[in-house]
Design goal:
This protein is an alpha/beta fold. The chain is 42% helix and 20% strand. It binds S-adenosylmethionine (SAM).
Length: 270
């Protein structure tokens, strides 16, 4: 098949499943990757694999193995959550609140693809980060992303279960976390593509939707410097509950996302 024939087949195959905007967006990914394959037979065969995946509901970022995030392109696979636009906003909020050339020691808890700390390190050359995740598979992808952007000297990855570990005291300036925060009871109402393809370890909590936030409270209290910041992404329905946990002792501010949903909490030691 020529590229023109593939494009025609692509549009016909997709027209009953996706809207026009999605079809145009997805075609861009296909075209960008198809033109890299010079041999026409190989290209047609590869196209068939990719279009089958797309029609079976596989997210485009898993089909091609990368996602766009902020100004960067990170590897993703089925072991990492696909980085979300809200999380790009979280990075922007942190960067806007921390301009200038100070040295900062940060940690990202539940790093997934590493999109948060790697974006911060790409934008702030003096910063260093630790990045923890329970998933060995996610950490492998995050390490590949660090290598891609030549950041391995400024980030240290560890496989850690944040809910059970006994931590050595530390002195972080910034803690960031976009932890799992969805209750399994929400599963039936969720987008099937998310539930079928994205790692449940990244999405769902075991029992209590507050479990990571309670652990983050203890960690923030004893592992940070004076004036430290904690930035968290939350479920829009529980943002106020997260504020309530942290307001017991710290200053906690709610921040809305671009859809005006309460989404982020910034906590400072005062
Ligand atoms: C919502 S995802 C966020 C991934 C990435 N930070 C992002 O924003 O795209 C949550 C991450 O927490 C990790 N995780 C889940 N349970 C954990 C635990 N008990 N300890 C450490 N990490 C955990 C998951 O593997 C997943 O990568």
């Amino acid at each position: 098949m020529t590229l023109q024939e593939i494009k025609k087949d692509f549009k016909e195959s997709c027209e009953n499943l996706f809207n026009q905007t999605e079809i145009n967006q997805f075609w861009k990914w296909f075209e960008e990757n198809l033109v890299k394959i010079a041999d026409e037979n190989n290209r047609s065969n590869q196209y068939k694999v990719w279009i089958d995946d797309l029609l079976n509901g596989k997210p485009i970022q898993y089909i091609f193995g990368y996602a766009f995030f902020h100004r960067y392109q990170y590897f993703t696979d089925s072991q990492t959550l696909i980085p979300r636009p809200e999380t790009e906003e979280l990075c922007e909020l942190i960067l806007n609140s921390n301009k200038g050339t100070h040295q900062i020691k940060g940690i990202d808890i539940g790093t997934g693809s590493g999109c948060i700390p790697l974006t911060l390190l790409n934008e702030r050359k003096e910063w260093k980060f630790d990045a923890w995740d329970i998933s060995a598979g996610a950490l492998e992808v995050a390490k590949k992303n660090a290598e891609k952007y030549d950041l391995t000297q400024r980030i240290h990855f560890s496989q850690v279960n944040f809910l059970t570990n006994d931590f050595q005291e530390n002195d972080y300036d910034i803690i960031v976390s976009n932890p799992p925060y969805i209750s399994k009871s929400e599963l039936v109402n969720m987008d099937k593509r998310v539930v079928s393809f994205e790692p449940h370890l990244a999405l769902f909590v075991n029992h209590d939707v507050m479990e990571f936030y309670n652990a983050l409270y203890d960690f923030f209290e004893s592992n940070t410097n004076k004036n430290a910041q904690l930035w968290m992404e939350t479920h829009q329905d529980y943002c106020e509950d997260v504020i309530a946990i942290f307001s017991r002792k710290f200053e906690a501010k709610k921040i809305e996302d671009f859809s005006q949903n309460p989404r982020f909490v910034c906590v400072t030691k005062v």
